[in-house]
Amino acid sequence: MTRRSLSSLAARSLIGGALAGTIIAFAAGGFVAQGQSIAGFNSGAPVNYAADRIELQDKQNRVVLSGNVDISQGDLRVRAARTTVAYTDTGSLKIQRIDATGGVIVARGGETARGDVAIYDFNARIITLSGNVHLNRGGDTLNGGRMVIDLDSGVASVNGSGGGSGGRVSGSFAVPKKN
């Protein structure tokens, strides 16, 4: 492993892409949700990170962040126990994929998504959160096994497979009080 300074890493390897999508605004039925403010998110904003440990694996073209990983870009924040950033290096680094594991939390504004694993494929512009997925937005909740967010269309699909939800999607919608 080649050692580099953290400032070099910040300048080269984690700039230039949205880390983990957008949290969900719920649609009736809860099976498909429209992405909240995807069009307004600046995916070219700088990415900031912190972790207890960082390991640069130059031969494998990846960076491993572990221990209380906290990554933010604009108002988007991702926390996990461990994150692997895969990249290509053709003179300048380009992130290909980010895998986050261990109590993953993705938050934007007052919205939060939780799951066991999150994968962000930069080329396909798709984020997948799986394993005991829980979404919270205000008083609304949604639970399932797997959620896929298409950043191009802004649509997120949730199903019950792959988690402790018994194969079903469940949740609750807050009902506004009448005046």
Element layout with pairings:
Layout: H1 6-12, E1 24-25, E2 32-35, E3 47-50, E4 53-57, E5 62-73, E6 76-89, E7 93-108, E8 111-121, E9 126-137, E10 140-150, E11 155-159, E12 170-172
Antiparallel strand pairs: 1-2, 2-11, 3-5, 4-5, 5-6, 6-7, 7-8, 8-9, 9-10, 10-11, 10-12
Q: Could you spell the SSE succession in H and E letters?
A: HEEEEEEEEEEEE
Weakly predicted, low-confidence segments: 1-40
Q: What is the architecture at the second tier of CATH?
A: Sandwich
First-residue to last-residue Cα separation: 64 Å
**How many discrete structural domains?**
1
Task: Please give the count of helices.
Answer: 1
CATH class wording: Mainly Beta
Helix residue percentage = under 10%
CATH topology: lipopolysaccharide transport protein A fold
Outline the structure in words.
The protein is mainly beta. The protein has one domain: Lipopolysaccharide (LPS) transport protein A like domain (lipopolysaccharide transport protein A fold, Sandwich), CATH 2.60.450. It is 4% helix and 55% strand. It contains one helix and twelve strands. Strands 1, 2, 3, 4, 5, 6, 7, 8, 9, 10, 11 and 12 form a twelve-stranded antiparallel beta sheet that branches. Strand 8 and strand 9 form a beta hairpin. It is elongated and about 60 Å long.
